[in-house]
Amino acid sequence: MISNIFYELPQKSWWQGRIDGDERGLIRLHQQVQIIEINALKPTPGVRNVIFLGFASDEGVRRNQGRPGAATGPYLLRKACSNLPVHYSEKLHLLDTGNIATINGRLEEARKYLAQAVSLIIENEGFPILLGGGHAIVQGHYAGLKAKLPGKKIGIINFDAHFDLRAPAEHGPNSGTSFYEIAEQCKKDSEPFNYLAIGIQRSANSKKLFEWAGQTGTRFIAVEQINSEQITEAQQQIDDFAAGVDALYLSFDLDVFVSAIAPGVSAPSATGIFYDGNFRRLLKACFDSGKVISMDIAELNPVYDLDNRTAKLGAQIIFDSLLALDETYSATDSMSGPNS
Question: In which pathway does it act (predicted)?
């Protein structure tokens, strides 16, 4: 049961936009999203529920000496998604369950409630799309998945310029420590640490972090490898990684993109990847595995955004992911047959 000061109830006012009509071919996401209190979730026979949940927090960014402002990210991501046209099938239902927020800097508590919320979504057969907020979202997100999938190998594919493998400092965990914490927990539980980082920049990670990545068994695809000549090899790395796990959790730190198209992030970079055919091929490779069970968008900082281009970029990831998810579900349903 999620009911405390860390939980913000969903509001229909978060989803507003253009209305061209009520026909299926004219509607937009804001006309499709249903508002529901998270404790009221339940499985819906015959459909696939996609559940939006915000993490309205930038406390981890503050602790990591980044630019604060990401706490309002979930609201702007919803706004950017609202006018997107509906191209997925009627078997996909979208629900918004509100936000988990950090109160008075209490990040550790907020992450625990985030984990509980994610567990509720998985328990009720939903597909979580978490909206950040800082990248401290990862630890709580993963913990919630792990709690409901005991014994399963969960692989994390993180599109990010950074490894986020920093050890927590004196002020506690932050936006750059989640994968270190997960690696340590896996070590404690004698489980493999299944982590693939995509878009890593040498100039954004210290030599020590590269060494730690090697020690933890972290796999990575550097930003230089994401090009037309090497994209097939990068896709193969995703295929190989997915083959070794039971489920995939995708995380998208928007600072993986070049700042020209993603200025509104907590840690901008002059270099990075573009939202082009190469990125789409990598995204497709993830969903083609048939193992993606959850995803999040992190580090949108509306304070520094220009013309909402970063928010729209995050919305585009969600749009393309919904199409890929719908295709995956359709393929699964056709394989199972009407009598399964």
Answer: Amino-acid degradation; L-histidine degradation into L-glutamate; L-glutamate from N-formimidoyl-L-glutamate (hydrolase route): step 1/1
Query: Residues marked as binding?
Result: 135, 160, 162, 164, 253, 255
With tokens 């928010």, the residue in question is 311
Strand partners, 198: 159, 221
Tokens of 136: 């401290």
Predicted local confidence at residue 1, as pLDDT: 64
- Break the chain into its structural domains and give their ranges: 7-334
- Calpha distance 151→147 (Å, rounded): 10
CATH of 7-334, one of 1.20.210.10, 3.40.50.1370, 3.40.50.150, 3.40.800.10: 3.40.800.10
CB-CB contact of 160 with 325 (8 Å): no
| Token representation of residue 86 | 């509906």
Q: Using the 8-state DSSP alphabet, how is residue 172 labeled?
A: B
Looking at the whole model, is its pTM more than 0.90?
yes
Residues of the chain with pLDDT under 70: 1, 3, 334-340
CA–CA separation, 83 vs 27, rounded Å? Answer: 9
In order of 3, 57, 264, 307, the CA distances from 303 in angstroms are 30, 14, 7, 11
The pLDDT value given to residue 336: 57
Annotated binding site for Mn(2+): 135, 160, 162, 164, 253, 255
Give the number of C-alpha atoms closer than 13 A to the C-alpha of residue 313, restricted to the C-beta side. Answer: 32
The set of residues, in sequence order, having a beta carbon less than 8 Å from that of 4 and lying 6+ positions away, is 113
Segments of the chain assigned E as strands: 7-8, 34-35, 48-56, 92-101, 126-132, 154-159, 195-200, 219-222, 247-253, 292-298
Q: Phi and psi (nearest 5°) for 301?
A: -120, 95
36 and 151 Cβ atoms separated by less than 8 Å? no
Per-residue pLDDT, 337: 53
CA distances (Å), origin 63, targets 68, 137, 248, 318: 10, 14, 28, 28
d(CA 198, CA 233): 13
What does the pLDDT read at residue 334? 61
